[in-house]
Amino acid sequence: MKAILVGILASLFFAVTFVLNRAMELSGGSWYWSASLRFIFMVPFLLFIVMMRRKLTPLLKEMRKHPLFWLKWSFVGFVLFYAPITFAAAFGPGWLVAGTWQITIVVGVLLSPFFYETKDLPGGPQLVRQKIPLAALMTSFIILLGAGIIQLQHAESLSAKMLLFSVLPVVIAAFAYPLGNRKMLVKYGGKLDTFQRVLGMTLASLPFWLLLAAYGWWSDGLPSMGQTVQSFIVAVSSGIIATVLFFWATDMVRDHPQKLAAVEATQSGEVIFALLGEMILLSGAFPSLLSFSGLFITGMILHTFASRQRIPKAAAKEKAQSI
User: Fold this and answer.
1) What is the spatial distance between Cα 260 and Cα 21, in angstroms, rounded to a whole number?
2) Contacts of 281 (CB under 8 A, 6+ apart)
3) In which domain of life is the source organism classified (predicted)?
4) How far apart are CA 209 and CA 42, in angstroms?
5) Residue 258's closest CA among 208, 316, 309, 204?
6) Residue of 204, 306, 265, 278 lying closest to 20 (CA atoms)
7) Taking Cα atoms as reference points, which of 238, 231, 240, 233 lies closest to residue 198?
8) pLDDT tens digits, residue range 142-182?
9) 263 by DSSP, 3-state: which?
10) What does the pLDDT look like over 198-240, one tens digit per residue?
11) Contact (Cβ atoms closer than 8 angstroms) between residue 266 and residue 8
12) Which distant-in-sequence residues (6+ apart) come within 8 Å of 123 by Cβ?
């Protein structure tokens, strides 16, 4: 339950991304700067935190041991996640981007067979391919349906260009983010803490963000003061607070696919928080608050119930077999 609450809190801070990215685009800011500044601003904060915890040297040693691994999965987990998200904000409202992003809830569950877990079998501990948790998959679809209802209510105002350039990039991001996170979690979960993993991925992806910033400077000039300040807020809120909270939540349940799927499903809260943010800051309308909130709460309750029940049942079965 603690991991679920941390995940929901993370979704609140993640929602800042969708609202402020859209605000920056509406004010004429370039998505190149919106994307790159977030990660550039994250570096000094994360460096300070990790250095204060005296854990920078172990991180750098691991990065030197496996540089290609860090470059590859940081690019997938951070670059292929955030660059498409900010690009999409240039063509569609925050609620559309946040709603489409909910695909990641189902994607996280479907990725299970690509990973392994250690199980005690008659021949001893063995790595076994994870199975898709069907209960989590069904409840994930319920939450995704709620997000889809919001999209349908605005379908008449969506052009083909808006759908292509604001939906397709987010679908790519929805696959990239959980994949990069889980790959890092499998290799370094329990070995490097959350702050170390986030800093490592930020540093490994930094060359790309600097290239993107350089291109933004060449094509659009320097960012305005307003965009710089908003990007700083996104960096602190979404890049540091939300990312660390989400990585921490997934780390708490990394050995339980069912609970991991439940934590990833908490990202559905971003739709509600993004809609509220747009309504308050950008004068956006909030559609069907009661019905969508009901779907969200129902999905969360089902996910939490399934997560709390499957593990005790499995434990009881193992205990019966050992008697």
Assistant:
1) 28
2) 19, 23
3) Bacteria
4) 12
5) 309
6) 278
7) 240
8) 666 665 665 565 555 566 666 677 778 888 898 898 888 88
9) helix
10) 999 999 999 999 999 999 999 888 888 988 898 899 889 888 8
11) yes
12) none
- What the block records as the tokens of 86 is 């900010």
Residue 159 contacts by C-beta under 8 Å, 6 or more apart in sequence? none
**Considering its fold, how many domains does the chain have in total?**
1
Q: Which two tokens stand for residue 112?
A: 């299970």
CA distance 271 to 254: 25
Q: At what angle do helices 289-322 and 134-153 cross, to 10 degrees?
A: 170
Tokens describing residue 104: 């990641």
Yes or no: say if 196 and 58 are a contact pair by the CB < 8 Å rule. yes
Tokens of 293: 């909130």
Spatial CB neighbours of 34, under 8 Å, sequence gap ≥ 6: 21, 24, 25, 86, 89, 227, 231, 234
The parent domain of residue 34 ranges over 2-322
Q: How many residues does the chain have?
A: 323
